Amino acid sequence: MNPERIFEEFPAPSYRGAQEQALRDIQDAFAAGNDVVLVRAPTGSGKSLLARAIAGCAREIDDADPSDATGAYYTTPQVSQLDDVAADDLLADLNVIRGKSNYSCILPDERDTPVNQAPCVRERGYDCSVKHRCPYFSDRAIASNRNIAAMTLAYFMQTAGSEVFRKRDVVVVDEAHGLAEWAEMYATIQLGPRTVPFWDDLRVPEIDDLDRAVRYAENLAQKCGRRKDDLLSQDTLSPAEVRERDRLQELIGELDWFVSDYRDPQSPTTWLVDQSERSQARTSDDADGDDDPAGGPLTIKPMNPEKYLQHTVWDRGNKFALLSATILNKDAFCRQVGLTPENVALVDVEHTFPVENRPLYDVTQGKMTYEQRDDTTPKIARTIVRLMQRHPNEKGLVHAHSYDIQERLADLLSDFGVGDRIRTHDRDGRDAALDGWKASDDPDVLLSVKMEEALDLKGDLCRWQVLCKAPFLNTGDSRVAHRLEEGQWAWYYRTALRTVIQACGRVVRAPDDHGATYLADSSLLDLFDRARTDMPDWFEAQVVRMERPDLPAFRPGDALGDGGGASSARGGGTDDAGGSERGTRTERSRTRSRSRRSGRSSNSNSSPVADVWDTDG
């Protein structure tokens, strides 16, 4: 790596905010001999441009010996972040590669077939006449041969050990604050009807300790191997059989990793096993006559997956830059991901957005814990109406935290008569609902679930937002419970604070941008007190300035907006065409919400990342 090139590799024609000083500090950190540099850069500071400049410093082929690693990887856990990179002209030389399922076959009769189910993977010995034009293999060839390859963290980890994507000189990880949690998620093994192709043919014992879980994993891996070999012996497979073969291969790798890691006395990984209740549809004699009690689906979870990160990340490069706005505690972050803090440099990038443009407001109405939610949610709904009155012609975003809270709020707001201005989404229609809301000129309010990160709502896309619940991890999750039993409360509060800071950055994206964030759950104030020592100075400045706003009296009719465009007729009811369409949209949203209520899983033993992204509680 040659950090002296960092300024010439910066892709923008000019610097914004503190970018020039940040480049100088990053350059000095690498020049001092650090192999890993953490770059703590606030939201909107242009992290992707800094990332490109760092990646451009990688050793080039002309300056390397044949055995030297050259080039760079850019990776991020967020698919939307990779989409933004692909669409940015300043980052055109970051060559993006995605997984096979994201590409369609170009053969005439297969244009609706994803590449991972195309004839080349269905038929033995298939010689594709257009492989040189296949979109996946074309992108892969380009990314593997150019100086900077860009991919999601999932694809990056999956290609560990690949002959195509070998070790490179520099690895840049954007949005790196959740690296430990993402590694835990990728290394978690789910064994159930949706993940094991022949689950209904298995007899699953009750797993009461890890030794028994390891023995069962070995047995299951052997069965998967035999089934996979049967599929491989066939000349032609159906798309469903291809999916089964690939899943079996993944499952074998997951199970083998668990067994080998558990039996490695040097491994720092702690494993936990959760088992849900057996389905009533399965009878006690559905296998081989064993009298042992039968158990249900299993989740095998790693904690502190340092060994997994060593193989999938740290062995993939010589130098590393990890960028995020919310690496809140350097020492704690390093311990979580298996780095030695003394060997890691931290570069803090100054926040150049005026603090008065990103105000926090205290509109707390009580706690949103499970026990107190029934009392607090209606109060928050009334507060949202008053905020809609305060912002009659501006788009708003409500961070509902869970689909249960989203549904309750949607019903209450509809009952209050402001449903015409409310939008919701479900899991499957999340992206489409978000795109529709952003594209609309109406000052609608989106009740969102898990949109605290990787969302750019610059300018009039959104001028105000509400945090309905402190985003604490689910204490019913075994990993969270295990850490709290060990007294890791600082980690618990720091993780929630990280999500809050990320959320606050969604609506202010430039120095001349502005957006208000309203805090509705009083537990957020308690969180700020408990996690104050891990709070960045620039966010602490927002907390210090926080005040309780003077909101208008509760008059739902004033919340429907009186601005121009399609929203101008809202004050006169819903007789106009726009109002009728919006009413239909709201009713469709409520119907989808009721459908979600009946279809949610009751399993409380989901992974910590599932609690962050997909909680229902």
From TrEMBL:
<feature type="domain" description="Helicase ATP-binding">
    <location>
        <begin position="11"/>
        <end position="361"/>
    </location>
</feature>
<dbReference type="Pfam" id="PF13307">
    <property type="entry name" value="Helicase_C_2"/>
</dbReference>
<dbReference type="InterPro" id="IPR010614">
    <property type="entry name" value="RAD3-like_helicase_DEAD"/>
</dbReference>
<feature type="region of interest" description="Disordered">
    <location>
        <begin position="552"/>
        <end position="617"/>
    </location>
</feature>
<dbReference type="Pfam" id="PF06733">
    <property type="entry name" value="DEAD_2"/>
</dbReference>
<dbReference type="GO" id="GO:0003677">
    <property type="term" value="F:DNA binding"/>
</dbReference>
<keyword id="KW-0378">Hydrolase</keyword>
<keyword id="KW-0547">Nucleotide-binding</keyword>
<feature type="compositionally biased region" description="Basic and acidic residues">
    <location>
        <begin position="275"/>
        <end position="285"/>
    </location>
</feature>
<protein>
    <submittedName>
        <fullName>ATP-dependent DNA helicase</fullName>
    </submittedName>
</protein>
<dbReference type="InterPro" id="IPR006555">
    <property type="entry name" value="ATP-dep_Helicase_C"/>
</dbReference>
<keyword id="KW-0347">Helicase</keyword>
<dbReference type="InterPro" id="IPR027417">
    <property type="entry name" value="P-loop_NTPase"/>
</dbReference>
<dbReference type="InterPro" id="IPR045028">
    <property type="entry name" value="DinG/Rad3-like"/>
</dbReference>
<dbReference type="GO" id="GO:0005524">
    <property type="term" value="F:ATP binding"/>
</dbReference>
<keyword id="KW-0238">DNA-binding</keyword>
<feature type="domain" description="ATP-dependent helicase C-terminal">
    <location>
        <begin position="403"/>
        <end position="526"/>
    </location>
</feature>
<dbReference type="GO" id="GO:0006139">
    <property type="term" value="P:nucleobase-containing compound metabolic process"/>
</dbReference>
<dbReference type="GO" id="GO:0003678">
    <property type="term" value="F:DNA helicase activity"/>
</dbReference>
<feature type="region of interest" description="Disordered">
    <location>
        <begin position="266"/>
        <end position="303"/>
    </location>
</feature>
<feature type="compositionally biased region" description="Gly residues">
    <location>
        <begin position="560"/>
        <end position="576"/>
    </location>
</feature>
<dbReference type="InterPro" id="IPR014001">
    <property type="entry name" value="Helicase_ATP-bd"/>
</dbReference>
<dbReference type="GO" id="GO:0016818">
    <property type="term" value="F:hydrolase activity, acting on acid anhydrides, in phosphorus-containing anhydrides"/>
</dbReference>
<keyword id="KW-0067">ATP-binding</keyword>
